[in-house]
Structures are given as structure tokens and as C-alpha cells.
Automatic annotation (TrEMBL):
It comes from the Bacteria. It is an enzyme of class 1 (oxidoreductase). One of its GO terms (biological process) is fatty acid biosynthetic process. SUPFAM superfamilies: NAD(P)-binding Rossmann-fold domains (SSF51735). PROSITE patterns: ADH_SHORT. CDD domains: SDR_c. Its EC number is 1.1.1.47. Pfam families: adh_short_C2 (PF13561). InterPro entries: NAD(P)-bd_dom_sf, Sc_DH/Rdtase_CS, SDR_fam. GO terms for molecular function: glucose 1-dehydrogenase [NAD(P)+] activity; quinone binding. Coiled coil: none annotated. This is Glucose 1-dehydrogenase. Belongs to the short-chain dehydrogenases/reductases (SDR) family.
Amino acid sequence: MSLENKVAIVTGAAQGIGFAVAKRFVSDGAKVVIADIDDAKGEEAAEDLQTIGEAMYIHCNVAERLDVRNMVAETLNAYGDIDILVNNAGIVIGSDFLELEEADFDRVLSTNLKGAFLCSQAVARHMVEKIEGGGEPGCIINMSSVNSVLAIPNQIPYCVSKGGVSQLTKSTALALAPHGIRVNAIGPGSIMTEMLSAVNSDREARQRLMSRTPLLRIGEPAEIAGVAAFLASQDAGYITGQTIFADGGRMPLNYTVAVPDGD
């Protein structure tokens, strides 16, 4: 699944799943732009990846149209093309539904859903121009979640945003199909990121997590990166409008599984 000489933008790539995707892409030969709002971690991530290939950091708040436009322009100035976009940037704000602030709801939707729309539209415009000039179609990968389907009562904005990402994926896949541009999504389950570290260290919380995970383990960011690498490659050339759930079997589950003591 070589991505040799492809140019990829990965948003929210300063850490976690986004960084794992960026690292896999660089390892597979791509030139990668890490887009994030955390300048310190973003620069550090880019320096890390530069030891194995080509990478650079660009500050970008995906909820801001001007930031997105500048990100695309800087990427084209640096690498001359954009073949792959991974809309990974996302935030979580937990709150009881009755206490949820409108501003918090708006903030999550602006980053997780509007940001994916703005980035997709800006990059797709470039891709279409390239195709009209005889270039090859690119692809877009959205980071969805099992919570695009499953709900959490104190994570209303996050669940709503990921449900929106699911429909954004399908709608844009149909809209861009005439140009040959593929749009797919990945729906991670429980992945060992910074956000999940507290759960993993709490035995009771870990037992609850395992009880809904048939494979009885937490996934690794690199495993999500592997799915992204597949979707970005020509091996997935006939796949569009789909969400691949990498969740250890959680989505098909209609019960809880027995968790051995000590796990």
C-alpha cells in the first residue's frame, strides 16, 4: 500500500490517532502536513516525522474558513499538490444534557463537523481542478466513531457531530464520485490514546470497557492508521461512501461479553 510521493494533510495530527496516521503515511512514502492548533506539539510531531521522511507543521483551526484556506495554500506552496485529506481534528466536551451550554454544543459541532466540511470542500476544489488538468483523483478520509451510531448520554455534541460526519461522508462521496474522488470514513472504538489512559488505569472502568469489546483488548492508534493507509491506497480504489468500524467487534454486539478476572 505504497503512498510514494503522495501529499497528505492530516488535521489534528499533533498527537493521538492523527499522529499515528501521519506517521504511517510518512513511513509509506507520503509527504505529510500536520495541521493542528497546538503549535508546540505540532512542531514536535513534525520534527519527529522528519527523521523518517518529509513532514511539516501548519497551524490551522479547522472551524475557521480563513485558516483552512491558508492551510491549503501553504501545502500547495510547499509540496505543489494534495492527494489525501484526513479529517481527524476533533474535540470532546462532556456535560449532562440538561446542563449543556449552547456555546459548548456549537464549539464541538464547529470543530468536528463544520471543520470536516470546510477542509473537504477546500481540498476537493483543488482536486477537481487537478483532475480537469489531467491529474489523478485524490481521496478524503473522515474520522468518525462508533458513536456515530451508538450514543453516550453525557456526550451529546460529540455523538451528534459524529453522526453528522457519517452523513457528510456519504453525501460528499456521491457529490465527488463523478470526478473519481473517493470519500470514506473510519469509526474507531476504544483506542489507546491520551483520553483513554485514565480509563485503562481504573480496573472497574476497564472491566466495563472490555465487557463491550469482543476482542477483549483496547485498540492501538497504529491499527487505525493501518485502515487509513488502506483507504488512501489504490487497494481501496473501488470503495467510497463507506465507514469502516475498527472497534474490536463492538458494533455487532447485542450483549456483554464475559471478562476473565485479571484482564
